[in-house]
Each structure stands twice: as C-alpha cells, then as structure tokens.
Amino acid sequence: MGGKPAAYYQKIRKDPKEFRANTALGAEEKFLKVSRAPEGMKKEAVKAAKVLGLEVTGVDFLIDDKTGKRYLLEANRGPGFTNPSPEMDALASFFTAWACLPKSKRCH
C-alpha cells in the first residue's frame, strides 16, 4: 500500500483434498508481523504493484514446502480483505493520508 507492505499473512488449507488455499473454501488466515516477511518477498510485492501502477495491491506468493522456493502467483488490483484485520487498519490509514494530500500529489 503506497509503496510498502501493509499486511503479511499465511493461508492454511484445512481440507487435505483441496489444493487451493482460499478462505471461501475453508482456509484459515494467520496474520503475521510485516517485519517477519522476507525482505526479498517485500521487494517483489512492491515491484509488482509498481509495474502494474497500483497503490493498493494484494500480492500472492506460493512457497514450495520442500525447497522453500518462492513463486509470485498473482497481483490483485482488488484484493480481498478480512475484517477485522491488520490490513483493514492499514487500508484506513492509507486512504486517510491520501485524502489529506493536495490533489497534485495524489496518484491518479
């Protein structure tokens, strides 16, 4: 959000027969401190948002359980938000700060 990561969480599948980790399919979201996110992951997420010209972006990564290798899966221009969550607090702060900027400084 605004050039820096605002939330970091892990999605945990509950159904061993399901390969997707969507909350709509029963996966659990475990929110973690952004400071615990690997620096490379944070840089890749910010770069993906910049390349797409997005201020608010949900960037999804897959991590291979065996090798630890990270794959950028997608960057969402309309990420899903869980309420209440740290991401909602960050989103509120971002838009409050944005609204206080002169129009010439706002992203378009």
* CATH homologous superfamily classification: ATP-grasp fold, B domain
Record field, number of beta strands? 4
Number of separate structural domains = 1
**What separation lies between the terminal Cα atoms?**
15 Å
CATH fold topology: D-amino Acid Aminotransferase, Chain A, domain 1
Basic shape: globular
Look at the structure and give the mean pLDDT. 82
Order of helices and strands: EEHEEH
The number of distinct helices, counting runs of at least 4 residues, comes to 2
Q: Structural class, please?
A: alpha+beta
Compute the gyration radius: what is it?
15 Å
Bin the strand percentage.
15-25%
**How would you write the strand order of the largest sheet?**
1-2
Q: What are the low-pLDDT stretches, counting only 5+ consecutive residues below 50?
A: none
**What fraction, in percent, of the residue positions are helical?**
25-40%
